[in-house]
Automatic annotation (TrEMBL):
Keywords: Cell membrane, Disulfide bond, G-protein coupled receptor, Membrane, Receptor, Transducer, Transmembrane, Transmembrane helix. PROSITE patterns: G_PROTEIN_RECEP_F1_1, G_PROTEIN_RECEP_F1_2. It comes from the Eukaryota. This is 7 transmembrane receptor (Rhodopsin family)-like protein 2. The keyword Thylakoid does not apply. SUPFAM superfamilies: Family A G protein-coupled receptor-like. One of its GO terms (biological process) is adenylate cyclase-activating adrenergic receptor signaling pathway. It is found in: Cell membrane. It is a multi-pass membrane protein. Residues 33-131 form the G-protein coupled receptors family 1 profile domain. The keyword Magnesium does not apply.
Length: 131
């Protein structure tokens, strides 16, 4: 058993330095890249198409994964918060929900592209509000 920071034996988990650096790098790059995607979508009105709304929805979900999910995962791996079962459970639940939303957005983008390829002549009519 490892020693906790106060010198007593406890459930303190020491994170490998490489793991922490890689996770932090992924979180920062994910947040910046997805934020840029959202900003470009908001700036250029020509991008306001059905497929791009799916992409922006995915970018928002991945921004939450990079901004909230990965830091929560690092804290949970470190054993923080200590002695706060409800807080830890809440952090894990948020992480699970955010990752599930991101996966479901990928499914929506895949289905949209599948329909666009399978029904190229009817795709625009099916995806517009005129249908």
């Amino acid at each position: 058993m490892q020693r906790a920071p106060n010198g007593t034996e406890g459930d303190f988990k020491e994170l490998p330095l490489v793991y922490t650096i890689v996770e932090g790098f992924v979180a920062v790059v994910s947040a910046i890249g997805n934020l840029l995607t959202i900003v470009v979508f908001l700036q250029d009105r020509r991008l306001r198409k059905v497929t791009n709304f799916y992409i922006v929805s995915l970018a928002i979900a991945d921004l939450l994964v990079g901004g909230l999910g990965i830091p929560s995962a690092i804290l949970i791996r470190m054993g923080i918060p200590r002695n706060a079962f409800n807080t830890c459970l809440t952090m894990l639940s948020i992480l699970l929900v955010i990752c599930t939303i991101s996966i479901l957005n990928l499914v929506a983008v895949s289905l949209d592209r599948y329909w666009a390829i399978l029904y190229p002549l009817n795709y625009h009519r099916r995806m517009s509000s005129e249908y």
